[in-house]
Amino acid sequence: MIFTAHLTDHVKESVLLGLENAIAAPAGARFAVHNPSTGDLLATLPDMGVGETRAAIEVASIAQTAWAARPAKERSAILRRWHDLILTHLDDLAAVLTAEMGKPLGESKSELQHAAAYIEWYAEEAKRVYGETFPAPSTDRRMLVIKQPVGVVGTITPWNFPASMVARKIAPALAVGCTVILKPAEQTPLIALAMHTLARRAGLPEGVFNLVLASEGDAIGRELCSNPKVRKISFTGSTEVGRILMRQCSDQIKKVSLELGGSAPFIVFECADIDAAVDGAIQAKFRNAGQTCTSANRFYVQAAVYDEFAGKLAEEARKLVVGDGFSPAVTIGPLIDERAMAKVEAHVTDAVSKGATLMCGGTRLEGAGAFYTPAVLSGVDRRMQVACDETFGPVAPIIRFETIEDVITEANDTIYGLAAYFYATELKKVWHVAEALEYGMIGINAGRMSSEAAPFGGLKQSGIGREGSRHGAEDYLEMKYLCMGNI
Prior knowledge:
By secondary structure, this protein is of the alpha/beta class. It contains 16 helices and 20 strands.
């Protein structure tokens, strides 16, 4: 590995933690990883391509039979040691994550604890892959179902939660006996390297968990989708890329798990506890600078409480501190890059030009990073981009509504169906809205809902499959029916 001599002291040792198993790319090709807060070069890494991907697939294919044959208890023990090592190195790993992604150090620690929780969960689920027996129609046979690992899995993870996404995909696959190739996002590969090293230290055999690092993902994605030795693809990212991967997998009828885009509505009814709703809105909108697939994207507030909610949300948003994630006072880090900044600025400019009121924030801060102050917009309507498109930034557009029928229609009027939130205290209304919203996950009087024990995933064009819970393990298993005659 080649690193810049200017690597900051407080992350140097932690970044090096993850670089023990690097694979050289052809002709010395490399790509750079930068700190989004400062623009500083953190590292240059091997820039791999189709050849390295194919080699990783071959290694994973060879390793898969022996890994699947291991007793579940042994696989469980290795995963548990991996979990323990992540918590042991929590401070170092958090420094890596903040350095390459930008989020505040406290959020990085929280994400890594969440990642470790997924690994712990699937360490336990490894021992709970059950079959079934069925009453046979005659006495000369027995009927049963067994479940076996799907085989080699290709995984592609995003930059916004680069530790927890690795754990959510890799842990269930390893738990049930699959081997894995991981292509992490080019902006945030260092935390994946660190987690990979700790997995090997925990006792994971060579070839079971394989990394492919690259500055571009198109060719690697095509190889993972087209190579017949890869039996499943798991991807988290945009709906546009998800469609491409799904098409590329279709010739082989390959299993896919897709966790894609979202446009989450956040609904506040007049019966809601407004202070609780504001607190939930801050969590659902501004965590990770609004760069989450479950981030609240459209705020619908009933007319009777519209002004109160908007005023209190703007007041709380002004208290958020934007800056370098290593600063103790900072609560919001930078956007990932200038392209993300341009989209956020364009959405706010469009809304204001069409009559929305900017209640707070909405300005770019000076400095190398793409720092943007949290914005609250009132008077938003459907003509504005911010009400129709996923902004993926710290902007809260507030839309007024009158009736429950109106807001359900508006909330469901999207191709996406990942997450939704609403605040209400009337039980009849809670049940009606929860059942009517077309989303895979719904936070009811809660601004955060992700848990290793719960199924994470969406409806419509927000994806296929679930991560987390026992259902997350099922996505890496094949069901096999056995009909046994007399022996």
